[in-house]
């Protein structure tokens, strides 16, 4: 039985990856940091009582800023594969917490790599580093691929740039099996509520149900190559099963404006949105509502731009070329954006229902 260690196991990707590896028969160890309230919702369905026999999923308290903790957990678990998913992953927040972001996302990766070396596990342990399309930042070339130059545009992306190169350096210097997955945006019903897709799908559900009036967003012009997290964790695993370690772009190859994502999400509930104005004056109004289950009046303003959500430096356009992953890893996404939006909106409606805010099982088509 192979053993995997996942940092950031209770995040969006950690949850999908843990599920995938358990399905594949792995022993899965996950690192989560201590929180004042329990925040394991995404992995509660995988939980196994540690007192039982043959437990294949275990959680360990840890933090990417604590070297001795990481060394001890790796020593105890002796993983064949480490997936380094833990990070302060919010681009806008990284402008508020740049030093912490550098520490957790940049130096945290170094700590893991050094832990493997200190423990003499260079030959045994393979490592996946969660690199990002944010590395491309200011557009140099489209579509972006493995050879496209980087130009990071946030403290988050700069920290991830360090993590990218230290991973490459340890691979070359110490012959370690270390890979960067340069993943473009990937979403799901498990996406954190402050990332734009989930913020939109939650608000669309709440507005349709009469629980919220207006959705305030930042830059509606930004274009992202959005995929489904479930497809992307499969690519992470495939990267660690090759004969030689390499870096791979994972993307759908299709880019969409934030504004269009808003239209699609409302569209799922039969609500048509018309945008008027420009820049911070831009507003979205209900042009028509042809779903009798939702009483959203035509002409009502449901979207507004709030400059507080703008970033000091923005990444305007991301579109990835995943030809290398398709060819060498045999990776293909199963979801398209339409399927993703539908799943997210439906899931948010069900969440409001579970929370007892409304009763409308019959409303979802
Ligand atoms: P999430 O924000 O959902 O999850 C991040 C995880 O990291 C959480 O479990 C979080 O714990 C944990 N974490 C944060 N800081 C620390 C720390 N100092 N020590 C230990 N754990 C920590 O991110 P995603 O699942 O979406 O992304 C996974 C990784 O992939 C991240 O590194 C992200 O930067 C990267 N990435 C994501 C993409 C995406 O579109 N989703 C695209 C490309 C890269 P807690 O719950 O306590 O906050
Ligand atoms: P991103 O994701 O910055 O691409 O990073 P996010 O969903 O936060 O933003 C995408 C785009 O939408 C614009 N936007 C808004 N964003 C947020 N969060 N909130 C808003 O109200 C809003 N309005 C407009 C943003 O300006 C941006 O252009 C994600 C994270 O998962 C990173 O960890 C990961 O590395 C990259 O994707 C790939």
UniProtKB/TrEMBL annotation:
Keywords: Lyase, NADP. InterPro entries: GDP_Man_deHydtase, NAD(P)-bd_dom, NAD(P)-bd_dom_sf. Residues 5-344 form the NAD(P)-binding domain. GO terms for molecular function: GDP-mannose 4,6-dehydratase activity; NADP+ binding. Its cofactor is NADP(+). It catalyses: GDP-alpha-D-mannose = GDP-4-dehydro-alpha-D-rhamnose + H2O. GO terms for biological process: 'de novo' GDP-L-fucose biosynthetic process. Its EC number is 4.2.1.47. It comes from the Bacteria. Belongs to the NAD(P)-dependent epimerase/dehydratase family. GDP-mannose 4,6-dehydratase subfamily. Catalyzes the conversion of GDP-D-mannose to GDP-4-dehydro-6-deoxy-D-mannose. This is GDP-mannose 4,6-dehydratase. It comes from Niastella populi.
């Amino acid at each position: 039985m192979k053993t995997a260690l996942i940092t950031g196991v209770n995040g969006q990707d950690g949850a999908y990856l843990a599920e995938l590896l358990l399905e594949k028969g792995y022993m899965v160890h996950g690192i989560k940091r201590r929180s004042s309230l329990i925040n394991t919702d995404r992995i509660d369905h995988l939980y196994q009582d540690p007192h039982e026999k043959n437990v294949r999923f275990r959680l360990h308290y840890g933090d990417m800023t604590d070297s001795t903790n990481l060394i001890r957990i790796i020593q105890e678990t002796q993983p064949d594969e480490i997936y380094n998913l833990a990070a302060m992953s919010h681009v806008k927040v990284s402008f508020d917490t740049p030093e912490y972001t550098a520490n957790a996302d940049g130096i945290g990766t170094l700590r893991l790599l050094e832990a493997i070396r200190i423990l003499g596990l260079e030959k045994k342990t393979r490592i996946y580093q969660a690199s990002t399309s944010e590395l491309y930042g200011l557009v140099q070339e489209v579509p972006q691929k493995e050879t496209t130059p980087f130009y990071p545009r946030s403290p988050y992306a700069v920290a991830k740039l360090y993590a990218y190169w230290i991973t490459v350096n340890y691979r070359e210097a110490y012959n370690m099996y270390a890979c960067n997955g340069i993943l473009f945006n990937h979403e799901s019903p498990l996406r954190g509520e402050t990332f734009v897709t989930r913020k939109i799908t939650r608000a669309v559900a709440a507005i349709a149900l009469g629980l919220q009036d207006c959705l305030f967003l930042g830059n509606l012009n930004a274009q992202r190559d959005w995929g489904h997290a479930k497809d992307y964790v499969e690519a992470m695993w495939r990267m660690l099963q090759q004969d030689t370690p390499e870096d791979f772009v994972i993307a759908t190859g299709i880019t969409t404006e934030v504004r269009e994502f808003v239209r699609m999400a409302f569209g799922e509930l039969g609500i048509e949105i018309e945008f008027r104005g420009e820049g911070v004056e831009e507003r979205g109004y209900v042009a028509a509502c042809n779903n009798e289950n939702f009483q959203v009046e035509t002409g009502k303003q449901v979207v507004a731009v709030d400059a507080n959500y703008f970033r000091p430096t923005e990444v305007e356009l991301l579109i990835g070329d995943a030809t290398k992953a398709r060819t060498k890893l045999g990776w293909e996404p199963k979801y398209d954006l339409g399927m993703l939006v539908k799943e997210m909106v439906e899931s948010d409606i069900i969440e409001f229902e579970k929370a007892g805010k409304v009763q409308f099982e019959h409303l979802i088509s």
